[in-house]
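Morning!

As promised:
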Amino acid sequence: MIELNVLSRFYMREEVMFTDPAPNFNFDPHSAEFAADPYTTYAAMRAIDMPYYWEEADTWMLTKMADVEAVALNKNMLRNNEAFVSEIDRKEQQRAINFHDMPYHERYVQVNLLESEGETHSRLRKVVFREFTPAMISRQREAIQTFVDGLLEELSDQNEIDFVSDFAAHVPGHIIGRVLGVPDEDAPKLRHWSEEVVRFFDPGREDADKARAEFATKEFYEYLLDLLATREAALQDDLLSRLIGHRDAGQLSQDELISTAMLILMAGHGSTIDVLGSGMHALLRFPDQNQRLRDDAALMKTAVQEMFRFESPLPYFHRFATEETEVGGRKFPAGTRFGLLYGAANHDPVRFDNPDKFDVGRSPNRHLAFGGGGHFCLGNHLARLDMDVIFSSINARFSGIELADTKVEYKRGLSVRGPKALRMGWKRA
Amino acid sequence: MVKLTFLKADGSQVETDVAPGNSLMQAAVNAGVDAIAAECGGACACGTCHCVLPQDWFERVAAPASDEIDMLEFVIEPQPTSRLSCQVVVTEEMQDMVISVPDTQV
């Protein structure tokens, strides 16, 4: 367990003179207790008047909506620290967080659209943005509906399923795979690689996880290389073919094409599976809201937004300050690393009335589940369309949905949020 | 303070007073104009704060940068005087300006 560290105690004494300098909470995002309920810890962290220093990751954790939003929108806060750290120091930092000696991961995962800034980020984002506009994404509705209908039909004779492994796990990978141009039958492989790679982003990286992440990246790379060769021989109406066109037009390099394709596939996988699971869990934990949604299908749009707010599937990102910056009422030097706890900000009572209540009609609902600022999630329209189609289809086809096992365990860690499994009963409506 | 009016697609109007230096997007969001989704928070990164300026104002405010022009290509039903409201800074001269907002951004 990590107690409030000495540095934070000093600052607390210095700046909050008339309150107890030692908040009564432990911040241990690896623990089972945190996985079961991060929001009690987040509330305690919000209650202190300044950011909380997390020694393990040398990071100042932000939990208030105002602070998280301000940093996400601050153009002087960057995803990487290349601008003010020498190459030698950067390599040393990579070593310190066990992000070194993994050539494929370093080349195709650690460097990509998400991790870039400035000209590179603008150029790559422009290439990808046009593929994920509402108009482009709406073209996928029929294909999503057909796939979801087929999967639900297969499951409809079962009285009890694990919603996560039997259903949710199959959907996002197929959909994003189709957008990119990956054959349906390869979706399970992509999901496996994505999970292996993404897991390694959580703080506390073990060597075993590192080896798995590197191996998965290598396999992922080799797979994409083969697929690219196929597409180059015969271009199709898919994202991969259009990326080839952009590459040939000089808008992105071959490495950038691979890392972008990898990022799109990874970003479109796990987090949507997680929020499908937590969204269904929320509906079952709040039966009045479930019934309200069943009675009024027009609430689906706000219900989906609320699912993202209530259990934000990617609750943690970071930024580096490139210059001295004031955050949460105190100044921090250039180079400071901030943790943006979107999951905490999305439960901040200053922004949301009754933030721990799941409200399918919540409006406005200005949450940060898709991040904020220049790195705002490009796949947000696709994720929301997936959710809309899925929950509408389930409500139309099934009734009497209830938890078969009320003990629902959530994944451990800071960077992801979603149930490991969700056993539930249902019957054909 | 500068008085602005947001004209919604259904013909209703929302009047608001905003301090110069804020963006049109901030003014709309603070006034509860739901049609300005502004999902990225004002970074010219999502294209969900589309608004349409009166012709005379469009010519008088600072011209859109290339990033904004790129984004405007993808908004729903762009008009010749379309702008992303997060990129338009409110000035004293904008007193009584009427800004049209679309029915939906997505």
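Chain B touches chain A at residues 29, 32, 34, 39-47, 67, 70-71, 73-74, 76, 106 (CB under 8 Å).

Hope this helps with the figure draft.
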